[in-house]
Amino acid sequence: MSRAAQVLALFVVLAAGEAYGSPADVFGLGPRASAQAGAVTASASDFSAVYYNPAGLAFSGATEVGAGVLGFGSGLSVRGQPAGIADPAALMVGGRLVVPLGGPLERRLFVGIALTVPPTSILRIISRYPQEPFFPLYDNRTQRLMVVPALAVRLTDRLALGVGVNYLAGLNGAVQGATGTSRSVEPRVDEAVPAAAALHAGVRWEPRPWLALGLAYRQSFSVPFTDVSDVSVAGQPLSLTVKSEGLFTPD
Questions:
Q1: What contacts 239, CB < 8 A, 6 or more positions away?
Q2: What is the structure's pLDDT at 226?
Q3: What sign does the dihedral 24-26-32-37 (CA atoms) show?
Q4: For residues 93 and 67, what is the distance between their CA atoms, to the nearest angstrom?
Q5: If DSSP codes are grouped into helix, strand and coil, which group holds residue 10?
Q6: How high is the mean pLDDT in each 10-residue block of the chain (251 residues)?
Q7: What DSSP state is assigned to residue 87?
Q8: Which residues have C-beta within 8 Å of that of residue 229, sequence separation ≥ 6?
Q9: Per-residue confidence (pLDDT) for residue 21, from 0 to 100
Q10: φ, ψ for residue 199, nearest 5 deg
Q11: Which of 59, 136, 62 is CA-nearest to residue 97?
């Protein structure tokens, strides 16, 4: 490596900004990205690129499918009590495909998808009291279905753009209760599941066969849920509205 390249590499390291955790970054998406601690923005080209940099899908000519099982445990404690992890396992499935087009679009469009599927639930959100200590990375983030489809376009042999969507659903609804004929509160629950999605975008450029540069952006993500409770007990109305956001990850 030349002296100029060494100086450039040193500048990039010293100029690094803050890093934030996010759902796939808890353990990594795919074995290679996990082994490299998620530092694959300019190198991922398998299905994990849909999360780390969608443009990377365009830098491999093979159509592939991957699957695996992720397991994890906890040795943490809160106030002397063990802090376990619910659903400490997940199935990972992903793939990438060269869109079979001819002419100018031949081997220019690529699609990919990654899924992380918990064994017993689609989503787990535990809303803690403000005074209650907990470990946010392990409380909810590892127990949710993750679906990330993506599309990449190879503009030239060295440059590609990609875009993906981190998709899940929120929860809105109401709980109504009133004293029934048995003199107990009879509830009625109406819930709706609206979509929640965040953008993943990236660009990858390979100016030299030995050099790849990547830039990725992941939009802030959360799962909003709202519940309005209207309960009548002995003729007295009791109303409670709960609004919260789970799984929050900043830009």
A1: 228, 229, 230, 231
A2: 79
A3: positive
A4: 4
A5: helix
A6: 60 48 68 88 94 94 86 86 82 91 91 88 72 78 83 96 86 72 71 80 95 95 78 74 76 89
A7: S
A8: 174, 175, 176, 177, 238, 239, 240, 241, 242
A9: 41
A10: -85, 135
A11: 62
pTM of the shown model? 0.76
Torsion 242-245-247-248 (CA) sign: negative
- How far is it, in rounded angstroms, from Cα 5 to Cα 8? 5
Q: Which letter does DSSP use for residue 110 in this model? A: E
The pLDDT of residue 17 is 47
Q: In what order do the strands lie in the sheet with 171-179?
A: 185-192, 171-179, 221-233, 236-249
Q: What whole-number distance in Å separates Cα of residue 90 and Cα of residue 72? A: 9
Q: Give the residue among 50, 146, 22, 46 at the shortest CA–CA distance from 92.
A: 146
- The label of the residue with tokens 């042999």 reads 157
Distances (CA, A) of 125 to 79, 143, 245: 22, 8, 9
- For residue 149, which amino acid is it? P
Q: What is the pLDDT of residue 3?
A: 66
- What span, in angstroms and rounded, lies between the C-alpha atoms of 72 and 86? 10
Answer for the pair 154, 206: CB distance below 8 angstroms, yes or no. Answer: no
**Structure tokens of 88?**
């400490």
pLDDT at 19: 42
State how far the Cα of 189 lies from the Cα of 176, in Å rounded to an integer: 6
Query: Beta 185-192 vs 171-179: how paired, if at all?
Result: antiparallel
Instruction: Give pLDDT, residue 199.
Output: 94
